[in-house]
Design goal:
Shape: globular
Number of helices: 13
Helix content: 40-55%
CATH architecture of the largest domain: 3-Layer(aba) Sandwich
Strand order of the largest sheet: 2-1-3-4-5-11
Order of helices and strands: HHHHEHEHEHEEHEHHEHEHEEHEE
CATH class of the largest domain: Alpha Beta
Number of strands: 12
Radius of gyration: 21 Å
Number of domains: 3
Length: 345
């Protein structure tokens, strides 16, 4: 039987995009909608309308809000979460949000409409939690973003230390002899509390620690967490600054787009431009060249966050918990060793 995951794989779009086409949402490009609908027709895929209606009538135990509609990394965590929840006998409702959306306001609305027992925020902006999370009273957990300093008794968090991990990515580029490093990704506003802010400043701090100059106007290009944005940002940055020898991309998805951009500019990875990504999605093991990246432990993020939430749903006096999940640098093949006489990665 064809599943929504099969449609996503065959079309090349994310599960979230396929879901929005099936549910006739307007925020899908005409090209994506046309291709997905064509695959749906070819595969004779039939969403179970009766089951969907029944699910809408049942009180939802857990709501999962995913911050980003094309973020493969978050979808990997989501899949693990759904498996654990299903094995625990818990019903879950998933909503995909744009990465610029306010996930806390979305949660407040869903709490009023659906009365969930718990909420999982998969990605988020800490500033939104500071402003309005006090209106949410059910057990919640924020995943991939630390929330230890907010002081909410009903909010746990499990995340990777983005600042330290970004510093490690840039430190590896420096050890490989790179001093002209560009950075791609994050919000143009660079607001404190966003993932882009933490990753940018972790990278900049490492450059400063090693007395390597960094001109943010010449060496940084903001962008969304998507392949297309990675391609556009890398193209813009490499045309603007021809002295760069390496790019630190704030996600693997951005890095994949950047690799294509380098090739379209008649250069090669890593011979002309070295690239390191962030997340450690499975694709990086098979890319050509194999992408160097910061690997987050998706299985641990999913397991600990779901177990924490279910424990606090079932035991009211259970305190919130905040934990940083370790990361590691995967060296890959996309970085040239400029210190080596052989010049190999």
């Amino acid at each position: 039987m064809t599943t929504i995951k099969d449609i996503a794989r065959l079309s090349g779009y994310s599960i979230g995009t396929v879901s929005r086409v099936i549910n006739q949402h307007s925020d899908v490009s005409p090209a994506a909608r046309k291709k997905i609908e064509k695959i749906i027709a070819q595969e004779n895929f039939q969403p179970n309308s009766n089951a969907k209606l029944l699910k809408q009538q049942v009180k939802t135990s857990v709501i999962i809000l995913v911050k980003g509609q094309m973020n493969i990394f978050l979808e990997v965590i989501l899949e693990d979460m759904q498996k654990i929840l299903n094995e625990s006998g818990e019903d879950a409702s998933v909503t995909f949000l744009d990465e610029a959306a306010n996930e806390v306001e979305a949660a407040i609305t869903q709490c009023a409409e659906r009365k969930p027992r718990g909420i999982i925020f998969l990605g988020g902006n800490i500033n939104y939690f500071k402003k309005k999370f006090d209106q949410i009273h059910v057990p919640s957990v924020l995943v991939t973003v630390p929330a230890a300093g907010l002081g909410y008794d009903n909010l746990s968090s499990y995340a990777t230390d983005d600042t330290a991990a970004s510093a490690a990515a840039v430190e590896y580029l420096i050890r490989m002899g790179h001093t002209n490093i560009g950075i791609i990704g994050g919000s143009a506003s660079i607001q404190r509390g966003q993932i882009g802010y933490r990753r940018l400043h972790g990278a900049m701090n490492m450059l400063k620690k090693n007395d390597i100059p960094f001109d943010i106007d010449k060496q940084y290009e903001p962008g969304r967490f998507s392949i297309e944005s990675g391609y556009d940002a890398a193209t813009t940055l490499l045309k603007r600054n021809k002295k760069l020898t390496a790019l630190y991309c704030m996600s693997d998805i951005i890095a994949i787009g950047a690799v294509r951009a380098v090739m379209d500019l008649s250069m090669n990875v890593p011979e002309d431009i070295s690239i390191i990504g962030y997340d450690g999605i499975e694709y990086t093991r098979y890319s050509v060249p194999r992408l160097a990246t910061i690997q987050q432990d998706t299985s641990e993020l999913a397991r600990k966050s779901v177990e924490d939430l279910l424990m606090r749903i079932n035991y009211e006096n259970r305190p919130a918990n905040h934990e940083m999940i370790p990361f590691r640098v995967l060296t890959g093949e996309s970085i040239k060793d400029r210190k080596s006489k052989r010049g190999t990665a």
